[in-house]
User: What shape does this take?
Amino acid sequence: MSYESKLKSPEMDELLQAILLLETEEEAYRFFDDLCTIKEMKAICQRFQVARCLTQQKTYAEIEALTGASTATISRVNRSLAYGSDGYKVVFERMD
Assistant: This one.
């Protein structure tokens, strides 16, 4: 199942377009502070860090120690890396 069949909607398109309009880190902080709870943002950040660690070939034990993520979260992110839409891959390539 592709991301389009799971997520695609006019409302999601509008949200993504809004995110793409952000120009600075400060604008992004302000927008996401309004959009999400602190707990939600920390969970997203944790998954992002788990993905980074997995791409660096770190073990589950190392990732758990570094990020505090559960093995269930690590497995979920690992599945996204293996079978997802390559979103993490695009971002990590552009960041490096």
User: Anything to note?
Assistant: The two ends are 29 Å apart (CA to CA). The chain has a mean pLDDT of 94. The longest helix spans residues 38-55.
